[in-house]
């Protein structure tokens, strides 16, 4: 039985407001960390250290951490991760790597292969892969995957811009509906949590609301069970792998 509304962790929409500012890689993590099989793999990670690659990660990340605190080390491939390299033949006006001048809250971490830099500010998230030997103050070149390395003409572009309100609200409602269904809530209870008791009052006569909530629940389940890989620009799961049982709690 689902928890009472005032105790359910998924019920307060305010707890999901941070989702409005997430970029696609952060959203991919939010869906992945809810996968029941991923959570099992995290608990037995000491026995199966190589299982992270199955999920598109270099290293497993703690699924109890949301995107504000987690640092998932995704396998390479996302085109908006900026690669920074020392410039071996810099011009006189070369751009230098100035760590403390990168805007936003900075987090430097080793992702199992190399150094990664994440800088977050409201509505934006900059992600960099730092080449070996790069030091603060060095002349630097940058590259995006699939593009030639060139001199940096100006500050690196942000990975994410403020998401259009409809798209942002869709992700918020999808994650909230996913948490609710994973907790055992009925679709009507999900409707009350997302849209209010008054909106759900005509549940049995308003087929439109039922269809909307059902679509949100199905979308969330699909993103959790492999759809997140599209957000992270990873190849899809092999057919039949990790599809799981849709009725599994």
Summarize the structure.
The protein is of the alpha+beta class and 249 residues long. The protein has helices at residues 24-32, 36-43, 165-182, 187-195, 207-231; strands at residues 57-59, 73-74, 82-86, 105-110, 115-121, 124-130, 140-143, 150-151. A six-stranded mixed sheet has the order 4-5-6-3-7-8, with no helix packed on it. Strands 1-2 form a two-stranded antiparallel ribbon.
Describe, in plain words, how this protein is organized in 3D:
There is one protein chain. The chain has helices at 24-32, 36-43, 165-182, 187-195, 207-231; strands spanning 57-59, 73-74, 82-86, 105-110, 115-121, 124-130, 140-143, 150-151. The chain is α+β, with helices and mostly antiparallel strands. It folds into two domains: 19-71 and 163-231, no CATH class; 81-151, no CATH class. A six-stranded mixed β-sheet has the order 4-5-6-3-7-8, with no helix packed on it. The chain starts with 23 loop residues before the first helix and ends in an 18-residue tail after the last helix. The model is unreliable at 147-164 and 243-249 (pLDDT under 50).
